[in-house]
Design brief:
The structure holds two protein chains of two kinds. By secondary structure, chain A is α/β, with parallel strands linked by helices. Chain A contains 14 helices and twelve strands. Chain B starts with 6 loop residues before the first helix and ends with a strand. Chain B has one helix spanning 7-14; strands at residues 19-24, 30-31, 46-51, 54-63, 76-83, 88-94, 109-117, 127-134. Chain B has two domains: 7-51; 54-134, OB fold (Dihydrolipoamide Acetyltransferase, E2P) (Beta Barrel), CATH 2.40.50. In chain B, strand 5 and strand 6 form a beta hairpin. Classes of the chains: A alpha/beta, B mainly beta. At the A-B interface, helix 5, helix 6 and strand 5 of A face strand 4, strand 5, strand 6 and strand 8 of B.
């Protein structure tokens, strides 16, 4: 198996509804990644694109083929990955596998979504398609409702009074807003940097106990990365970022995950695969971009990834242990909460962030100094798809 | 291989307030939500059983932002119920003011009825869900 490096990354600004098409958004991110890699579109051997809801957002299916032609990757195999919010991570992971196998030496992977363009009603309906349509959607399940129920279950399981847990969850949002407010690519760039606990708790209720500020936004945006074999990578860049571990796992309906909830068992399996493959432990991770679709989701993720004991992640956020300069720097990009969540692109955006952190290219106030090892974490649906990747600085 | 308990049969039974599940002939585990194989041991030798439809609330939420087409239903309360036989199931909670739903619901005993979601343009028809009410 060959070593595989990220040799270039690109990303649009994540945003609310805007006028650019999915092909245009993906093209912007993809060309940035290709140019950064000192490559031309004709050098790309295959294109792997995450896209979950393009058919609903703009009536476009099979966006990957149109994207490939649009950016001059003519006649290459172009595959779409759909794993709800984990779509782009699936695309990057599969690109890794194809390059590691030696079948391709250079693959472009990423994703695109116009979740904001759909508007709240349609986006809520279509996101709910990632829950079980036969057995759980009739109850009126929505994405916030899934994590709202996990919030109450978390409070009950670990014996934390709900009001205390809600304050800890507010701290998660506040930290994400702080970093996102100074990230020019973030959906909430320039906004909410001074968010307070009272304002989070007092904003309108989406699904009890989650308020608006516990929930990530629907975003439009795209991200892309170029992966190359080690031999090729060394010729292209003196700053290769190696993907050294990958993991992926799946689950069925939420109620059938009951043996472990509020833990997400698929994440524990996926992340262990990634850690073991890379030969690292949670303690080796300097920076983690994790799937904070809701504030409670950060606590659940950070525990399943092995950073904090079960039931204690809220305290960790309160003490700053999950922030830059703490035990583990979580979501210095602002995460899904503030950077935004164009679901088909989110995982590639995580790789973009960690790569630029390693290179020391982000805004100084949110730079994780000396970061050498990073972890990505994306969750699709209500635990249906989990993907984790370990990235390591190659210089 | 025969699919023992189909969605159609499960749904028709649920509309009669009968909750069907599958009992594994290999390990004895009960699977709720129909599947090809046992949820615990993945064995394929399953027998259809009827569950009691009683259990206790493990978690809940009251929803205020609805999916397109279901705006008239809000606010409504979703619960996850641990059935007396062990498995969990999702449904709605009836007979309370959704705005008053609180942590005090957790652990409350419930019994099952049903309510039919008439379906929308994406759902390939209707679908019943458990509608629970608190047992005093």
């Amino acid at each position: 198996m060959q070593k595989v490096a990220v040799v270039g990354v690109g990303e649009t600004k994540f945003s609310g509804p805007q006028d650019r098409t999915e092909v245009e958004l993906f093209a912007e991110a993809a060309m940035e990644a290709i140019n950064e890699s000192n490559l031309k579109p004709k050098d790309i051997k295959a294109l792997f694109v995450g896209n979950a809801l393009g058919d609903f957002a703009e009536g476009q299916g099979m966006v990957q083929a149109f994207a490939a032609e649009n950016i001059g990757c003519l006649y290459v195999p172009a595959n779409k990955y759909e794993g709800a919010c984990a779509s782009a991570s699936m695309a990057v992971r599969d690109a890794f596998i194809w390059v590691a196998s030696g079948f391709y030496d250079i693959v472009l992977a990423g994703g695109v979504e116009r979740a904001a363009t759909m508007g709240t009603g349609l986006a809520t309906r279509t996101f709910a398609m990632f829950s079980d349509s036969r057995y759980e959607y009739p109850s009126g399940i929505t994405f916030p409702a899934v994590f709202a129920m996990l919030s109450h279950l978390y409070a009950d399981t670990y014996g934390i009074p709900l009001e205390k847990l809600r304050e800890q969850m507010a701290r998660v949002s506040i930290q994400s807003y702080k970093h996102g407010s100074i990230n020019p690519k973030a959906h909430f760039y320039g906004k909410y940097g001074d968010m307070g606990v009272d304002k989070v708790l007092g904003s309108f209720v989406v699904a009890t106990p989650l308020t608006l500020h516990d929930c990530c936004p629907f975003s439009d945006g795209a991200a892309a990365v170029v992966l190359a074999s080690e031999d090729v990578a060394k010729k292209l860049t003196d700053k290769p970022v190696y993907i050294t571990g990958i993991g992926q796992s799946s689950s069925g309906p939420l109620s059938n995950q009951s043996d472990y909830l509020p833990r997400i068992r698929a994440r524990e399996i996926s992340s262990k695969q990634a850690y073991d493959m890379a030969g690292v432990t949670p303690r080796d991770i300097d920076i983690c971009e994790l799937h904070d679709c809701f504030s409670i989701a950060s606590l659940i993720a950070a525990e399943s990834l092995g950073f904090f004991d079960y039931g204690t992640a809220g305290e960790a956020w309160e003490k700053g242990e999950a922030d830059i300069g703490g035990k583990i720097a979580i979501n210095p990009s602002g995460g899904l909460k503030s950077k935004g969540h164009p679901i088909g692109a989110t995982g590639a955006g995580q790789v973009y962030e960690i790569t630029r952190q390693f290179r020391g290219e982000v805004e100084p106030e949110r730079q994780v100094e000396g970061a050498k090892t990073g972890l990505t974490d994306t969750l699709g649906g209500d635990g249906g798809t989990l993907v984790n990747m370990v990235l390591q600085r190659g210089w | 291989m025969e699919y023992k308990l189909t969605y159609k049969d499960y749904n028709e039974a649920l509309k009669q307030n009968r909750l069907l599940g599958l009992k594994c002939q290999s390990c004895g585990a009960i699977t709720v939500l129909p599947k090809m194989v046992c949820r615990q041991c993945t064995g394929p030798d399953l027998e259809i059983i009827e569950l009691k439809g009683t259990g206790k609330i493990r978690t809940f939420t009251t929803v205020y932002v609805a999916s397109e087409g279901r705006e008239d239903e809000i606010p409504y309360t979703i619960v996850m119920v641990e059935l007396d036989e062990g498995p969990w199931i999702m449904g709605n909670l009836d007979g309370i003011d959704p705005a008053q739903a609180s942590m005090e619901l957790v652990g409350k005993k419930v019994k099952m009825g049903n309510k039919v979601f008439p379906g929308d343009k994406y759902s390939a028809g209707e679908g019943a869900r458990p509608l629970f009410s608190i047992v005093n």
